[in-house]
Amino acid sequence: MYRCWGLLFAAVNLAAIGLFAVSPAMGWWLPKNIASYGADIDHLFYLILVATGFFFIVTQGTLVYCMLRFNAKEGVKAMNIHGNTKLEIIWTAIPAIILIYIGFAQTPTWAKMKYIEIDTWFPVRYKGTNIESDLHVTVLGRQWEWRMRYPQGNIPADPQAWADLGNLHDLHVVNELHVWKDAKVKIHLKTQDVIHSFFMPNLRLKQDALPGKIMPMVFSPIEANVRYNPTTKMIEELNPSSTWEIACAELCGGNHYRMRGKLFVHETKQDYERWFAETLKNQRLHESPRLQPIVAAGNGGKP
Amino acid sequence: MNHEPHTSHEAKPRFLTTYLFSQDHKMIGIQFLFSGLIFFGIGGLLALLVRLQLAWPDGNLPYIGKWFPQSWGGKMSPEFYTMLFTMHASIMIFFVIIPWLTGTFGNFLIPLMIGARDMAFPKLNMFSYWVMWPAFIIILASFFVDGGAASSGWTSYPTLSNVGAEAGLEKIPAKPGEPTTSYTVFKDDSFNSPAAPGAGMGQIFWLVSLIFVGIGSMMGSVNYITTILNMRAPGMDLMRMPLTVWSLFITAILQALALPVLTVALMLPLLDKLIATSFFLPPGGLSFGNWHTTPGGGQPLLWQHLFWFYSHPAVYIMILPAMGVVSDIIATFARKPMFGYKPMVFSMAAIASLGFIVWGHHMFQSGMDPRLGTGFMLATILIAVPSAIKTFNWLATLWGASILYTTAMLNALAFVSMFVIGGLSGIFMAATPVDVYFHDTYFIVAHIHYVLFMSSIFGIFAGITFWFPKMFGRLMNEPLGKVHFALTFIFGNLTFFPMHILGIGGHPRRYYDPTIYQYLENLQPLNQFMTISAMLLGLTQLLFVINIFYSLWFGEKAGKNPWNCNTLEWDAPSPPPHGNFEQIPVVQRGPYEYAIDGPLDHLTQSSPASEGVKHHE
Ligand code: HEM
Ligand SMILES: [Cu+2]
Ligand SMILES: [Cu+2]
Predict the structure, then answer these.
(1) Going by fewer Cβ within 10 Å, which terminus of chain B is more open, N or C?
(2) d(CA B518, CA A145)
(3) What is the DSSP track for B158-175?
């Protein structure tokens, strides 16, 4: 009878492992990676998965073994042991070494993502805003949409001032982030009301937008998903399964879940520029001269 | 140190002073037990509504749909949904887990386990429970105020939570052909917030309620520290204290150091809302559609630092006592000395002190300087080491044991097993680059529930089952307890484990309707599966409630020491009278003398030295 408890624990743990085993095949797994540093992140994830999986199996296995093996028996006493210093040292040192390894193994990736310059692992130097980019985009979060602003010529003269104030000739698009393959993109993330978080699962990237600040985000996509068709003036997906979405990851009110955007990675810079030119032309046609696009009117993304 | 037995209990006890305004630490512990039980029910129902919405986001809800206002069309509104998870988490954390662990176990066990007649400050102790009542009433009342209860998450980040409407400018709508540049002073003294309906009056109630909780816990922790330091029975050296007492002692220190930060921090958004202080309003001000705040001079990130400076230590407040309780229960039913008593104490102390320098791991994506992230990452990674040490010591205690599978023991073993899962998932999120992806996804939700529900709550179930006979003189029903345990263990895992997978798939938390995202579409069957499991998990908890009330009146009568346990509380009658002990026990040895040589199986802490043939020290 007592065995059923050990077996129950074993069954639950095996089911847990089983779920992890079948999930990739079911498509319940990391979305496709398209970021230049994304492979590093996924690699780290698998490294930690292996390390934690090892400890999971060792500890749960020991627990189940003890439960099956050491039940109370008539006339048999438990061992009288109060501890063992050698064992304590061993099982402090082993996890500590593995964990510190995991700790140091990740600093280069973090540095790469955040464009921190590192000498060894420390001290870290912050490269900050003057990082070279091919394309600047300002993304403004508001309840509940993302407003993208693209400069003419891709790189404004003074990116910081441009991100802050904008320019009369900017292109404004809602909820669509357009970049091109292998572009070094710099996003200036802002918000006009509450904290939002710009989350692009395929780029393994997420950054909170902080009221009153302009947050930098830097990435470079290694794969394209769209092409601009100049005759139909439409964006065409390269293949039907490559819709890449943008989500909001920080609670920002009732319609937090509705801040859905799309990421369009054009095949080439020329393709992006064709889309840009055409869209800007349209914007000029529809734009009344006095409408200041930066000033938000109406009730935004409220459905 | 040796107190005279109280004489007051000779006087005929009256109902009010015995059950309501009691200064007896045991009754106060029991009061915390039952008020926690009520809030456990409320918090659980809120969680089930959250799950219902997640599983069938666009379906009109059968039966429940009728309760919603007509304008919502038979579904819950997105704002209502945000209120649900906010209040679920707030209630479970501040009104269930912390009160159960520190309130119930702290109050009931500390004097009994150290051989004292009561707390150092019985009256302060009574107040520590009674300031909870304004908190209870205010948090419940907040459901009924204009705009509904708080809905900015249990973390209540500004500027969603702190903006009030009383100090802003409203844009005058443009007439055709005119620029929209004229403003009027926004007139609204209703405390509504432009950010969210629940961020108005509901948020104010939330803040005030938690301030009361903070004051109550503060009184409790001062009392626990003083009692443990000053009131121990003769012979009860610090290094002879049971691990439960150690854990409650360390928790009380954590609380005393961290809680004032939260209590004061809660004042800041409250002042922002009430008198427009703008602690968290950025210099440029904010605009919500047509409505603009005045310029501020504050910084929204400040709240996150203050909040997590408390709330990271708080997550250890929510598990250390359970670790202590589980250690004592495992040693008792393994009939084996605790393996590595000193490492267990030191690792708890290490967790507590490291716990003060890891708060930034909640803020890797917040806009904090990324270099700071590296420091917080290393500290966080290190905190997993003492957690690992504790796990290994529990396992070593079980090795070569003589295990009795009581309900309390099963719940304690589940704690160990589930804490491993919760601790290991923490390592993914401690790794900054991986956390960029996992932050604010269901992976976090999985982590939270493995450490708080599957660990702390199992620890609480274990503790309640274990000390129930001491509290009420009757044992809880074992078969019913085992059924409750098995079903909770199964349905709990079915509910919470798939959340890891959702997180890996990138499913954000706090989403009213994930199905509008293509990349989340095929995760929806998991959501539905988890909701069904959660319903069953919720139903299962009724067994626990039934068991408590059944056993209160019909449970098997317990003697002084039904579990053959060593600690001092089992020297007192069950239930102990006012003043606890007929005679203050004299402590001879540590609490874990099981499996000793000779005819006896165990030696209680107070039995005279001659009784055991020999024992290890
Ligand atoms: C091995 C030890 C642990 C590590 C390394 C760890 C690490 C972390 C990290 C890095 C986060 C932030 C994730 C994010 O938001 O991106 C987190 C969140 C959290 N942890 Fe842990 N943790 C550990 C143990 C615990 C324990 C023991 C508890 C509670 C008893 C706990 C409760 C929580 C809670 C409640 C949150 C989420 C707060 C929120 O955002 O709502 N953790 N943990
Ligand atoms: Cu949001
Ligand atoms: Cu934390």
Answers:
(1) C
(2) 17
(3) TTTTT--SSSEEEEPPPP
Q: Which of B285, B310, B335 is the last residue of a domain?
A: B310
Q: Is residue B502 part of a domain?
A: no
- B509 pocket-lining for ligand 1 (C-beta < 6 Å): no
> pLDDT tens across A176-203, in order?
999 999 999 999 999 999 999 999 999 9
Phi and psi of B34, rounded to 5°? -80, -35
Q: Tell me if A180 sits within 8 A of A224, measured CB to CB.
A: yes
Q: Is the CB of B423 under 6 A from ligand 1?
A: yes
Averaged pLDDT score across all residues of chain B = 90
Q: Which of B310, B336, B351 is the last residue of a domain?
A: B310
Which run of H or of E encompasses B343?
A: helix B341-354
Q: Does residue A213 belong to the interface with chain B, where contact is any CB pair within 8 Å?
A: yes
CB contact under 8 A, B518 and A44: no
CB atoms within 10 A of CB B346: 14
Ligand 1 in reach of B465 Cβ (< 6 A): no
What pLDDT digit, counting tens, does each position of B512-524 carry? 999 999 999 999 9
* Mutate which of B247, B419, B451 for ligand 1 pocket (most atoms within 8 A of beta carbon): B451
Q: What is the CATH number of the domain that holds B87?
A: 1.20.210.10
Domains of chain A: 2-73+85-114 (1.10.287), 135-298 (2.60.40.420)
Q: Is the ipTM of this complex over 0.90?
A: yes
The number of domains in chain B is 2
pLDDT digits (tens, 9 = 90+) for A36-73: 999 999 999 999 999 999 999 999 999 999 999 999 88
- Does B214 reside within a domain? yes
- Asked if B436 lies within 8 A of A113 by C-beta distance, the reply is yes
Which residue, by CA, sits nearest to atom 41 of ligand 1? B155
Record: contact A260-B517, CB cut-off 8 A:
yes
Domain of residue B613, residue span: 567-617
pLDDT digits (tens, 9 = 90+) for B155-213: 999 989 988 765 555 655 656 665 555 555 555 556 788 888 888 899 999 999 999 99
Domain membership of residue B586 (yes or no) is yes
